[in-house]
Design brief:
Elements: H1 2-27, E1 31-36, E2 41-44, H2 46-52, H3 64-67, H4 72-83, E3 91-96, E4 103-113, E5 119-128, H5 130-176, H6 182-208, E6 216-218, H7 220-237, E7 240-246, E8 252-255, H8 257-273, E9 279-288, E10 304-311, H9 318-321, H10 339-349, E11 353-358, E12 364-374
Parallel strand pairs: 7-9
Antiparallel strand pairs: 1-2, 1-5, 3-4, 4-5, 6-8, 8-12, 9-10, 10-12, 11-12
C-alpha cells in the first residue's frame, strides 16, 4: 500500500513537472527545438514554430532535415551537430529569407545526456535578432554620417593651410620675381606644401578604402625586426635607443603582413616624433590569456598575442587620449593626423584591439592585442 502511494505521489510530481515544462516552453520568447540522434524532432515550442513557420506538435517525429528544407543554413547547422556533437556549444547566426522580410536568427545548442554520458538529444535555442541588427545598422549609418562630417571639416582645415601658402606665393610672384632669394623660397615652399596635400590625400584614401586582406600565419618576430631595421638610421640620427624583447613561447597569429607592418611603422614613427631630443623605445611581444582592457567578455581559449610599443616621449594628456584614434587628431606640427586612425583600423580588421596608456612627461605605451591562432611558438 505504501509503495502504491509512493508511486502515485511520484506520478503526480512527474505530471506537475511536465505541465510546468510545457508552460515554461510556451511562454519563452526564444525558440527551442530538440532532436534525437537520428535527427527526428522531439520538442518544439510555440516561439520556434512561429520563427520556422512550422505547425508545432504535428511535426514531432519527423526528420528535421525535411522540416527545414526551406532554411538550408539552419538545416546544415543541425546536421553538422548530429555528425559532430562536440560542436554543440558553437554559436551560429543565420539569415532566413522570407517573402515579406528577411529574418536573422542566432542559434545556440547543447547536448542532453543520460547519467553514463550517452548523448540523447541535441537542444537548440533560437533567438530572433532581426530588430537588433536593424538598430545596429541605423547606429552605424549615424556614426558614418558623423564621421563623414568630421572628415570633411578636418580635410578642409588641413588643405586650407598649404593652399593658403601656395596662393600667397603665386600672388607675390609677379611683384617679387626679380627679388633676390624669392624664387629659391618659392621652389622650397610650394613643392613642400603640395607634398603635404598629396600625403593627406594618400592617407585619406588609405583610411577609407577596404583592402583585400591576405591572412596567413606570420612570424611576428621577423616582422618587428624588419620594421625596426627600416628606422635604424632615423633612430640613430635622433639619438633614440631601441630595445626589443620576444617571449620565447609566443603564440602564432594570422595576419596580413603588409597591413600589420604599416600599423607597426605608424607606431614607431609616432614614438620617434614624440622624442625630438632623443630617448628610448621598447618593443615587446608575448602571449597572454587575459582579455584586452574594456573587452571583459572577449576571453578566447587560445588567448592573445600582445605587441607593446613604449617610449620616453612627451606623453599625451588624459583629454587627448579620448580622441587619439580619431582622424586628423595630432599634437604635432608635421603629419596629417591620420596615422593612428589607420593603425586602429588595421588592428580592428585583424579582430584585435589597441590600448594606449600615457601621461604628459612620462611617455606613451601602445599595446596591440591580436587573436592567438594556437598555443606554441610563433
Amino acid at each position: 500500500m505504501a509503495q502504491r502511494e509512493q508511486l502515485e505521489h511520484q506520478l503526480v510530481e512527474i505530471m506537475h513537472l511536465q505541465r510546468y515544462t510545457e508552460k515554461l516552453l510556451a511562454t519563452m520568447k526564444d525558440g527551442l527545438i530538440s532532436m534525437d540522434m537520428e535527427g527526428r524532432l522531439v520538442t518544439i515550442n510555440p516561439a520556434a514554430s512561429e520563427m520556422l513557420r512550422l505547425s508545432g506538435d504535428a511535426q514531432k517525429g519527423r526528420y528535421v532535415k525535411e522540416l527545414l528544407e526551406g532554411i538550408p543554413p539552419l538545416k546544415n547547422y543541425l546536421e553538422e551537430l548530429l555528425s559532430s556533437p562536440v560542436r554543440a556549444r558553437m554559436q551560429e547566426q543565420f539569415f532566413v529569407e522570407r517573402e515579406e522580410e528577411s529574418q536573422i536568427l542566432l542559434a545556440n545548442s547543447s547536448l542532453l545526456m543520460d547519467p553514463v554520458g550517452t548523448t540523447l538529444e541535441v537542444i537548440t535555442n533560437l533567438h530572433d535578432i532581426t530588430e537588433l541588427k536593424k538598430l545596429e545598422l541605423r547606429m552605424r549609418q549615424t556614426e558614418r554620417l558623423a564621421a563623414l562630417g568630421t572628415l570633411a571639416a578636418g580635410m578642409a582645415h588641413e588643405i586650407r593651410n598649404p593652399l593658403s601658402a601656395i596662393k600667397t606665393f603665386v600672388q607675390l610672384l609677379p611683384r617679387k620675381l626679380e627679388k633676390p632669394g624669392f624664387l629659391d623660397k618659392f621652389h622650397r615652399t610650394v613643392p613642400r606644401e603640395l607634398d603635404r596635400i598629396n600625403r593627406l590625400i594618400e592617407d585619406l584614401l588609405e583610411l577609407s578604402r577596404s583592402p583585400k586582406y591576405h591572412f596567413r600565419t606570420v612570424d611576428i618576430r621577423r616582422m618587428i625586426e624588419d620594421t625596426v631595421e627600416l628606422f635604424e638610421e632615423e633612430l640613430r640620427s635622433w639619438r633614440i635607443t631601441h630595445h626589443i624583447r620576444f617571449d620565447p613561447n609566443m603564440p602564432a597569429v594570422r595576419a596580413d603582413v603588409d597591413q600589420l607592418t604599416k600599423a607597426f611603422q605608424n607606431l614607431i614613427r609616432n614614438a620617434v616624433q614624440a622624442m625630438p631630443e632623443g630617448g628610448e623605445i621598447w618593443i615587446e611581444a608575448s602571449g597572454v590569456k587575459t582579455c584586452p582592457p574594456g573587452e571583459e567578455g572577449s576571453n578566447r581559449q587560445n588567448g592573445w598575442m600582445t605587441i607593446v610599443f613604449k617610449d620616453t616621449g612627451y606623453g599625451i594628456s588624459g583629454e587627448n587620449l579620448k580622441t587619439i584614434f580619431n582622424p586628423f587628431f595630432t599634437t604635432k606640427d608635421t603629419g596629417t593626423g591620420l596615422g593612428l586612425a589607420i593603425t586602429h583600423k588595421v588592428i580592428v580588421e585583424h579582430g584585435g584591439h589597441i590600448d594606449v596608456k600615457s601621461r604628459p612627461g612620462e611617455g606613451s605605451c601602445f599595446t596591440i592585442y591580436l587573436p592567438a591562432e594556437c598555443d606554441g611558438s610563433s
